[in-house]
């Protein structure tokens, strides 16, 4: 989620808390803190909270991919990945050691022939 949406959500939460206080207790926290409802600073805060509400509308339909558990055999766009589903990944460390062993066997075999 981008920084703009996070800031907008914080402002929307502040507005929701203020409306809750107005509804339950008839107390306008923004007006109390910033000099009344008609004060310039209070009106700016009300305006920013209103803009934040408009900016937050796309969040209703936004997909939050980071919150979903994705199957490890699928890509982010949910198309299947057939990379290694059938078998296990090859262990290349064993291949290298067998090649070294073959070379060692050939060397030891050649040394035995040379001794005879």
Number of strands: 0
Largest sheet: none
Please state the overall shape, judged from the principal axes of the Cα atoms: rod-shaped
N- to C-terminal distance: 77 Å
State the order of secondary-structure elements, H for helix, E for strand. HHHH
Instruction: Give the mean pLDDT.
Output: 77
Tally the helices: 4
Q: What percent of residues are in strands?
A: under 5%
- The low-confidence runs, each spanning 5 or more residues with pLDDT under 50, are none
Specify the helix fraction band. 55-70%
Q: How is this fold's topology laid out?
A:
Layout: H1 3-25, H2 29-34, H3 40-55, H4 92-115
Helix pairs in contact: 1-3
3D architecture notes:
It holds the Pfam family DUF378. Keywords: Membrane, Transmembrane, Transmembrane helix. It comes from Lysinibacillus agricola. This is DUF378 domain-containing protein. The chain crosses the membrane at residues 7-25, 45-64. The protein has helices at 3-25, 29-34, 40-55, 92-115. It has a domain at 3-66. Helix 1 (3-25) packs across helix 3 (40-55). The chain has 116 residues and is mainly alpha-helical. The chain is 59% helix and 0% strand. The longest helix has 24 residues, at 92-115. The radius of gyration is 34 Å and the shape is rod-shaped.
């Amino acid at each position: 989620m981008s920084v703009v949406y996070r800031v907008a959500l914080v402002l929307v939460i502040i507005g929701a808390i203020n409306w809750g206080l107005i509804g339950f207790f008839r107390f306008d926290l923004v007006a109390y803190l910033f000099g009344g409802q008609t004060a310039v600073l209070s009106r700016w805060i009300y305006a920013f909270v209103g803009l934040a509400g408009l900016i937050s509308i796309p969040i209703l339909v936004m997909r939050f991919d980071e919150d979903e558990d994705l199957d490890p055999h699928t890509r982010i766009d949910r198309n299947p990945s057939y990379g290694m589903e059938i078998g296990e990944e090859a262990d290349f460390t064993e291949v290298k050691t067998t090649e070294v062993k073959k070379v060692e066997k050939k060397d030891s075999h050649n040394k035995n022939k040379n001794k005879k």
